[in-house]
Write a structure and sequence with these properties.
Family (chains A, B, C): Belongs to the 11S seed storage protein (globulins) family.
Subunit structure (chains A, B, C): Hexamer; each subunit is composed of an acidic and a basic chain derived from a single precursor and linked by a disulfide bond.
CATH class of the largest domain in chain A: Mainly Beta
GO molecular function, one term (chains A, B, C): nutrient reservoir activity
Shape of chain A: elongated
Largest interface: A-B, 104 and 105 residues
Largest sheet of chain A: 10 strands, antiparallel
Number of domains of chain A: 2
Low-confidence stretches of chain A: 1-32, 133-138, 207-225, 295-308, 484-490
Number of strands of chain A: 25
Helix content of chain A: 10-25%
Radius of gyration of chain A: 25 Å
Oligomer: homotrimer
CATH topology of the largest domain in chain A: Jelly Rolls
Protein name (chains A, B, C): Cupin type-1 domain-containing protein
Keywords (chains A, B, C): Disulfide bond, Seed storage protein, Signal, Storage protein
């Protein structure tokens, strides 16, 4: 038994263990024929929350495409110094950072608070505060690990894990989140939900819900002074005992003070957010990421107990850089994939992601995903996309533009051709190791099948079948040398 | 590769294997918005079967709370010498022994009959029989392993495994069972079902079902002579061939003889039940349990084949004793949890349990369960419980009393304060490793989040944020030193 | 750590990995009380497609029995030289070869094309072609591995994997396929679907669908020139670029040429299909199978990388031969089971199969399956079958004949008695390791339970209980020595 092998298998076992940590069950509403889709649409968000320091836009989860895939999509825009209030959801989430940079904080109960102020730092911060005219006496803080994120990152958040985002850059942060409602981790119903731990947040999916939620919304309009972070539902006296604080402060935690001027889900931080973090330059950051990445690949957690393993688990991986490309054709473009082999946590979440870039007029060849739905978000430019269902009908033949979402259901065949401005996208997949079968090119159906089967299946000559196979030497991204119109004349 | 590590991982793999043994699929009815609960209720059973030697009470599985959690709950009360007839269910089950002691027999097909009468024992038993005036000639018996159970035990029964319970103590046995309908092991629909192998049992969920069941019940009233153990549905002649017995005896197995005087689901054993069991005192029993427990922790099954592993799998663990507490505060109370790390079978069942005890006026701090529903059963005393949903609304703010069930859906926040008589509960969780995030105290959100995030999120001063964190030093169980009324004045 | 052990566990881990490769989620329509079945029926197919070189028959997936089990069943009959066009499905499939022999080709993307023409073979084939009057110049081919199949084989096809079947024998090939719609691998809705890569196939489940499909069918009748392989839904110009071929050929791939004379799903190959395959005699074939089988048992894939492991994964296993029997009674018959311990891929698919043969008047003793539905297909002869539900009602008491399907839901008890002509069947089970509990015989409930429990449960004497146990020495297949009528007189 060679060491590298035994090592690998042990890692797999660990992954399996984590997998077992969250639920293997779920309870979604299932509609009759929900994937009998006559037509797909490239969709824009249709709900918008204007918060103090940013905007939250969401796609209608009751749309049939979303119902078929069992997912919800939300886009957060954080202004500079904007703080997305601590929240959690019963679903696993993948977040793609479309632009900007900032901090991510997660709450992993049972994990230690490993970031602690040194005396020196405290003094430095106190001086800063004094410069900013704040003269409060300040005691040292201690909290759980904080992660930096930047454009091109995929962040994975397990169900029920509280987290917050903060924009510490000098431009807006734009983040697109996928909530996987049909995953067994979500034991509630098919409605997407966020539980907030602070503030007076609005419901991201409020205008789109049915039944109770509409009613509730109606009540809100009547009652006016609705506030709905989780703490607000408890009695102040009981919380005062729980937190060992006076009722006055508890009322602030419950958001009761904010009633007249709600800051909503994203609030503005006065000055800069003061958190403890290792000092570092951009190069240092990248070097550190590289190191973390190598370690994670080498299975750093083997020597540790399980708890520490969970606590040091990598939640984030960059797939925006060209250097991370898995498929690369300098003329046509590139694709980077992030699956559970690269980011172990995805095995637990049963999700993966793909980041693609097509140069002008280049084509991502026709293919289907064997074992997952694909949720495509247009990051830049436009493409003509065609999608075909099981009965050979074209259910989508249109442009997909920046900022739009298109859902390609499992096994539906899809082809993309970039416009003259090129096209970039991120795709979330509802499987941690999505398997793609291309119709043409390397690794394609055409090359795997014997020429005589092709000849008989398509009623073409054996020479044509052979030529079909030989012409399929390209990788999944191609830049046609001849235009379609030229070809038509041939 | 250090030995202890390799050992651990191998054990995990084994667990995974067992996990694979039962189905990864299910088919539950899913209702629209089934977890859009306006209000939760502390529920009492609303169906009751009075059997010959005990009572079966069940909670309405069509109640919206139960539908949201996808579970059913039943309470069995066995009189002394009461025998719950052999039965099985398509769902996994957890049983908590509220009081009493007795035997549990399970049928694991393919496992050997390892309990056998010695000649001596037979003679002894024959003598006993003769003393009791029974003069029948008696041949030696042999059967599968039998387990003792006692107050505070959790018993895990996999889907489809036939089992029986017998009260061999001198007081009633009270057992509360959770049936996990939404687990993939249950491939039938959302209706809870028990299949009986003997007797003329009544349907535990009869009065609550819809459609077919009501109709069927109606037919029963007309036909009167309904009998419904599984054998009764086969033709007597075919069974006579199968069992190689005369039709007369077969008719008895089918329960046809009992029509006029049905003993129903729990029958009285004449004298004491004569089963083979190792002789032992109470101390011996506890010592043996301790030994079994140690062995199971050390992975005794590594050297054995798979079948033997399944056959010697531990089905039972005591969480009632104070010595098993995982969280302990002599002033406030204690909590013992039973997850798949302690009882391996739970990994397969995807269920876990918690046994809690709050002293008078003590508080179990506000928290949410990340990855599971929580089904709380009041064992003793009363508590005031508050539950909050995702929109910050209080969906429960009431007393939870002994004998009542309250379901806290995944991610809903909950706090409990014991009354002046204290409160004890058992909670079933729909995940084998339920993760809890406390809002306050050690390991809480408040302590994991940087003080400046708290200050900005709650619009409190940084000093207050720091105090909030520093005051949260307690464990999850607290006994407030000051009363709420005192605090309110502050 | 002993070598054999470490070996076993590593294999398990690998299996777990594959398991993770396909989705852990699904989205089936769930009806209220869908398993509240008043009556089961032995069903024949009710949809039929007459193709150029064969017939496809399917069972109505909307039938309540099929809805309860969440499966669909299709029977393919391929004439000599018939080719089932390349297709794939979002569900896992098990195929049983009822009769005949042929080739199976699968497309595993990322796996190499390992079958290549040698120069010699090419010449030989060219000569053959010339003899057949074909004078085309022929270039060497290369394609993925092809497998032989023969009567008694179970073939496992994962979701989304394209495959084709060809009859190279001298009699019809008859194949029965199970599509597991409720498995999490299927992320689409409850409707069974095949995606075809060539030809003008008809929808196998067309006449049975509802809503959209009926409408669509209606449109077809009006439009007449419907063609529906997946390629037909893309624009010809885009495909011309993708395949780097002229539009004329692309139109052929799309099936547009075939409009007037559709060959449908199964087409006739002119002459014999020319694929590359190792030359071998029947004995060689069997010897090779034996070798493959041994290797797979010994875990040949441990030394290879993961991709190669997937690429050399065994998809096929014969359970038709008497030599593979797991339960054997020369007087009564035999049963062979194929579970994930024998064919590793089944762990991923969560399916297993059973092949049974009862001699005239022999009985397969009453039993229930703990963790799976059972889909029985009658292969030869007839049997009287009785099925009993949870309330002890007989829901089936009738003949099951060759060519019929009967579904026995999870935990329902079933007994079979062959007619005077005997009975053979294949059963698909919706669990990779279906656990059966017999009511009588070895390993049965009766033998596992203490005699005194039986005596008290059934109100029979302890002697009768003991006799009941002692008479249950037989294995699951019995040939009653006395007839039922004789017994009745006793």
């Amino acid at each position: 038994m060679a060491k590298p092998n035994s090592f690998l298998y042990i890692s797999l076992c660990l992954v399996v263990l984590f997998n077992g940590c969250l639920a293997k069950r779920w309870q979604q509403q299932q509609q009759f024929n929900q994937c009998q889709l006559d037509r797909l649409d490239a969709l824009e968000p249709n709900n918008r929350i204007e918060a103090e320091a940013g905007v939250i836009e969401s796609w209608d989860p009751n749309n049939q495409q979303f119902q078929c895939a069992g997912v919800a999509v939300v886009r957060h825009t954080l202004e500079c110094n904007g703080l997305l209030l601590p929240q959690y959801s019963p679903t696993h989430q993948l977040i793609y950072i479309v632009q900007g940079r900032g901090y991510l904080g997660t709450v992993l109960p049972g994990c230690p608070e490993t970031y602690q102020d040194s005396q020196q730092q405290q003094q430095h911060q106190q001086e800063q505060e004094q410069e900013q005219g704040q003269s409060r006496r300040f005691r040292g803080d201690r909290h759980q690990k904080i992660q930096h994120f930047r454009q091109g990152d995929i962040i994975a958040i397990p169900a029920g894990v509280a987290h917050w985002l903060y924009n510490n850059g000098d431009s807006e942060v734009v983040a697109v989140s996928l909530l996987d409602l049909n995953n067994q981790a979500n034991q509630l119903d098919e409605n997407p939900r966020y539980f907030y731990l602070a503030g007076n947040p609005e419901d991201e999916f409020q205008q789109q819900g049915q039944g109770r939620r509409q009613q509730q919304q109606h009540q809100q309009h009547e009652q006016q002074n609705n506030n709905n972070n989780v703490l607000s539902g408890f009695s102040s006296e009981l919380l005062a005992d729980v937190f060992n604080m006076d009722v006055q402060t508890i009322r602030k935690l419950q958001g009761s003070e904010e009633e007249r001027r709600p800051r909503k889900n994203i609030v503005k931080v006065d000055g800069e957010l003061q958190v403890i973090r290792p000092p570092r330059s951009r190069q240092e950051q990248e070097r550190e990421e590289e190191r973390e990445h190598r370690q994670s690949g080498r299975g750093r957690d083997v020597d540790n107990g399980l708890e520490e393993t969970l606590c040091t688990l990598r939640l984030r991986e960059n797939i925006g850089d060209a250097s991370r490309a898995d498929i690369y054709n300098p003329e046509a473009g590139r694709i980077s994939t992030l699956n559970s082999n690269k980011l172990r946590l995805l095995n637990w979440l049963q999700l993966s992601a793909e980041r693609g870039k097509l140069n002008r007029n280049a084509i991502h060849v026709a293919h289907w995903t064997q074992n997952a739905h694909t949720v495509i978000y247009g990051v830049r430019g436009t493409a003509r996309v065609q999608v075909v269902d099981d009965s050979g009908r074209s259910v989508f033949d249109d442009e997909l533009q920046q900022g739009q979402v298109l859902i390609v259901p499992q096994n539906f065949a899809v082809v993309k051709r970039a416009s003259s401005e090129g096209f970039e996208w991120v795709a979330f997949k509802t499987n941690d190791n999505a398997q793609i079968t291309p119709l043409a090119g390397q690794n394609s159906v055409i090359r795997a099948i014997p020429a005589d089967v092709l000849a008989n299946a398509y009623q073409i000559s054996r020479e044509d079948a052979q030529e079909l196979k030989e012409n399929s030497q390209d990788i999944a991204l191609i830049r046609p040398s001849r235009t379609s119109s030229e070809r038509r004349v041939m």
